[in-house]
Fold this protein.
Amino acid sequence: MSRALTYLWFALLKHKVLHFCRDLRQPTTLIGFAALLSLVGFLFHNRHHEVFAQLVRRESLIGGMLVMLCGSVFKGFLQRGLVFEPPDVEFLFTSPFTQRQIVVYRLLPNYLFALLQGLVFLVLFASHLKHPLLTTACLTFFQIACFHVAAGAAIVAGKLSEQLHHRFQWMMLGVYFLLTALYLRAAWDLKIIPSFASSPLIQLLFYPALTLSDTGTEPPFREWILSVMNTSAFSTHQLWQWALYPGGFAVSAVMSLRLLLKLKANIFETSLATTMRAAEKRFRIQQGRPAAIIAQTSFRSARLPQLALFRGVGAIVWKNLIVALRSKRQLVLAFVFTLIFTAPLAALFWLLNDLVAKGGEASASDVEGFNMGVALFLVSLAFLLQRTFPFDFRCDGHHIVGFRTLPVSPIALVLAEITVPTVLCLAFQALGIAVLMFYARFDWPTMLLMLLGYPAVALGLNAAWNLHYLLSATKSAGGQAQSASAVGTLMVVALSFLIFFPAGWTGVQIGQHVEGKLCVPLAFAGGLVIQYAVDLLLVLTLARVFQRFEVSRDSR
Amino acid sequence: MPSISVTKPSVPSTSTSTPIHQKLLNIFVSPGEVFEEVIMAPPRMVNWVAPTLLICVAGLILLRVATSNEPTATAISPPVEVGAVSAAQAEKLSGDSQMISWLTVCLVAILGTLWSSFVLWFVGRAFLKTRFSFLKTVEVVGLTGIILVLGSIVTALLIAACGNSAARPALSLLASELDTTNPIRAVLDVLNLFHLWTTTVLAVGLSKLSGVSFKESAFWVFGYWLLARIALIILA
């Protein structure tokens, strides 16, 4: 390791720490840091809880190690070259440093991270470990070895052609799936492969590698329980433990570093390309655009709309609708989200029906209450869906100034912008409801509540996230610091929950003060009225911010 | 940028194409050359229909030998003894059962060929990012089936020699004391000489069809036909 590079790293580290401390003067950074400290404090306060003991069980630790190792290999493989800071690339690659020195320099922050991670682990889990220091040392060395493996994978992957890289990626995913299934079966006795997969019928899928006479017979296969976890190969002797465990992990760290440094590949070209990609990605995230750069695909030009709805400001709705229809990835993701939400609920309904059919007692009010609970639960699907459908201002970042020149009112334009994501959220929620209708019969008050409540929630959420985006874009255009950071996102998530507080509070107050049959309907009605009022306020605020955007742009 | 390799079949004169019986024999010694020829030639149905018919015949022979030691009548003798089924009914039941077994073997041979072709084609398309004709894949899988014919004959001879219908040219032969329901026995059964041979030839076929290296195609073919199969036995 070059002394000059060590000095450089220390100097940069010091600079970063000072910069971070200065940044704490900003409320958003301070809130984020305070939130993190609170989380750590909360974990530290509850560190003697049983959950922590479960986390350091042998099975959990092995699972964690597998995730770390496989994740490191995959992350490095996807990275395809070491990532440096852009100024580092300009300085390091033109300076008289050897490749080894640069690789070790690149690993120094990782070593620091491993040490800090070890410290946090020690503080949180020490009370549940028999040998806390020993385990911490092992974890630190293992993390270091993982960083070496990731760096090695990144360098090797950088040499591969695009097509070969794609193929290897699938191979790794296949191997990981197999490892996951094995681990879950061996460590937790969890079967992710159903038992019928071992039936003779399934064996037919491996034709022509089968014996034809087996097709007429049915040899039943019994379950084979792996007893890997029960084997205890290591001696429990204290001295051996102290020597063997950290020694083994330290050797793995040293060996992996040695192998990494022995790699003959030229890291400069691949690192340059990877650094550029990472910088571009960071820039896109800062701008509020999607991080993934989607490959250019040729689409057929869509026919002009015939409906009057899509004329005037409705053209923006039409444009966003076309974009949404062409974004198959987002639609598939939304479908998966809907499926994840709906499938367990459908299973619950099926279970309820089954229990009732077997003579279980359930009053009509219980069933209604259950249905209402499910309907309310499905509202939360909108939180995921609205992030999946950014077909509004979030998608039109570059055109906002152009939109201001259109001869339409800001409110109309804002409504046009948030129409498509809102409608798509509702459509997928409706899909979920339609699936649930196979297993459950919602009474009309519940249906009415869903009909009126879901749009209020979807509209509010989309308005809140667009407000966040427009505020960031306004600041960005005005030359101020951009706030599309993790802390900003955290705040807008909190805001997206807070906008429902007035409605919820009103509903509860009405429910407490009104008695009789009208209690629940009035509570919901009151909550809905307040929610729509909040939505209206959000839309008006959006329109106001949209107007301000032009001023900020001019003042640039 | 995804690069896609497309197999472009040139059309050689039919006079130079090897007859089907030679192709079937050459599969045992140089499958790569046979597949190269098949891929370059225009699609020919006989390339997969002929071996599939042979598989059906071999399967029927094997089934006959395997069930000769433990006839179906043995399975239905308890009901006859109890009196639940008459002797005539039992005879008819035995005949029907045999017919169903034969039909199953033939159906498995045809559907299995199509299914395996789909698996190979899908692996090529999705994981290896190459495009090749599905019909050519069917021909490759069909020709590979000739190894299954040999395997069936050898298995039939082995069963006849051992007098054990569970005997296989596999590692399980060394652990004949294990019960047939034992999963370890099932795993050892998978490590069948002819299964491994078939899988290797399929890997050669995928390699020729997709234009990727044998190592890469072997990863997927052995991953599916061997590892996934063992994993299913162990994990399911």
In short: Chain B touches chain A through 68 residues (CB under 8 Å). Strands of chain B lie at 5-6, 130-131. The longest strand of chain B covers residues 5-6. Residues 95 and 208 of chain B are 45 Å apart (CA to CA).
